Amino acid sequence: MVLIIRDISERKKSELILQQKTKELAELNASKDKFFSIIAHDIKSPFTGFLGLTKIMVEEFHDLSKKEMHDFSISLQKSAENLYSLLENLLEWARMQRGVTELNQKSCNIGNFVRINLEIANEFAKQKDIKIISNIPESIEVNADHQMINTVLRNLISNAIKFTPRGGTIELGTINSSDDAMSSFECIYIKDNGLGMDSLTLGKLFQIDQKISRPGTEGELSTGLGLLLCKEFIEKLDGRIWVESEVGKGSTFYFTLPNNTQLLRV
């Protein structure tokens, strides 16, 4: 009888490294595909409409009524706002993928950040007669990067407005958890009574390799890129993000951030 013993730990280690590299390469390719998809379609298409409107205004300027000029101006403004928001997200996402986004995590007042973002968003909400209610006290302190939390709030509030019909309501608030594991985190929610999502769409959210392109209630642009940013930023800040939704009944996005208790532990 001959007993042969081989140490295959190095081979297993190499296999694990190879699997990890394969996964990273697949994610990199998915990121690249997402990037070119946005460039090829989600930016090109709006610019086509934008250029079409400007062409009509130039060529038929003397034949257009004041009302028609006003309507064209509103359409151009909405297109410009949507494109700017998309480009802003695209640039931030590209920086994140390149690893040049620096994390500067420190104590900040979440209520103050909510107030600032609502002041900006209220103008867009007024255009759709949407009422925004904030029940987030300005006394809540969280541990977050100021730029990242601004991006998260801007995208989630913008999405809520985008998918809420004219005359709808959006509510922001916090949830107190009795779970000891959650005692060192603050949970913030943004709830709307808009279009809502089915289970298939919900399964595609926050996924880089899934194409989500749903127009808002008044044709606003949507690429899903903003939610990808939110997920990456929240997880980078040691929190998590999730959503509950039902078709025709709206959506509620939740995210957590470490509070001062967690900050003191660190």
The number of helices is 7
Beta-strand portion reads 15-25%
Number of strands: 7
Instruction: Sum up the overall morphology in one term.
Output: globular
CATH superfamily heading of the largest domain: Histidine kinase-like ATPase, C-terminal domain
- CATH first level of the largest domain: Alpha Beta
Question: What kind of assembly state do the chains in view correspond to?
Answer: single chain
Distance between the termini: 58 Å
Our Rg estimate from Cα atoms comes to 23 Å
Low-confidence stretches: 262-266
CATH topology value of the largest domain? Heat Shock Protein 90
CATH architecture identity of the largest domain: 2-Layer Sandwich
What is the residue-mean pLDDT, rounded to a whole number?
A: 80
| Main pleated-sheet profile | 5 strands, mixed
Task: Describe what this molecule looks like in 3D.
The protein has 266 residues and is α+β, with helices and mostly antiparallel strands. It has two domains: 10-97, Signal transduction histidine kinase, dimerisation/phosphotransfer (DHp) domain (Helix Hairpins); 108-265, Heat Shock Protein 90. It has helices at 9-59, 66-98, 110-127, 146-162, 199-204, 225-236, 260-265; strands at residues 105-109, 131-134, 141-145, 169-175, 185-192, 241-246, 250-258. The strands form two sheets. The chain has a five-stranded mixed beta sheet with strand order 2-4-5-7-6. A two-stranded antiparallel ribbon has the order 1-3. Strand 6 and strand 7 form a beta hairpin. The relative contact order is 0.12.
